[in-house]
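Protein modeling request. Please complete all fields; requests missing the sequence field cannot be processed.
Requester role: graduate student
Desired output: 3D structure, token encoding
Chains: 1
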Amino acid sequence: MWAFFITAVLVTVSDQIAKLFVRDHMRIYESIQVIPGFARITHIDNYGIALGMLGQSELQWKRWLLVGVIFIAMLVIVVYWWKYDKKNFLYDLSCGLILGGAMGNFIDRAVLGKVTDFIELGYRNWSFPVFNIADIAISFGVAFFILHLLLTGDESERDPKGGNDASTTV
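Delivered output (170 residues):
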């Protein structure tokens, strides 16, 4: 249970500290080479959603629509985690990563109206869309959640009395 809360808090705090550092020490579109030819720290303001989609404008209605959607998603994550508590580290970790990432981007969106992205990976003329720590946490959280489901199966459909399927009992 504590893995869920600790993970969510650590992701949110580390994401916000990194974004604050980038905003305070780099101009917009400034780029610093980290691994030549592969990784850069590039300050980008993302007004859209994942990977910069829908980011062409700074419309206020879009900002608050996204804030509302992210808030509802965070509530769904917490309710799902609480309702289907598996008492399993991988389950807690995956839900904590997803929630922490969502909270990190939610704070940016609600306070600033945009999300600060800064991690850029690419090779030669190709570059993956710029992202941040919150995005990494969400991606790994989803991957770990899928792994959890593959390893444990859907236990909610099993009959607790030992039958194979609760829907086949009379």
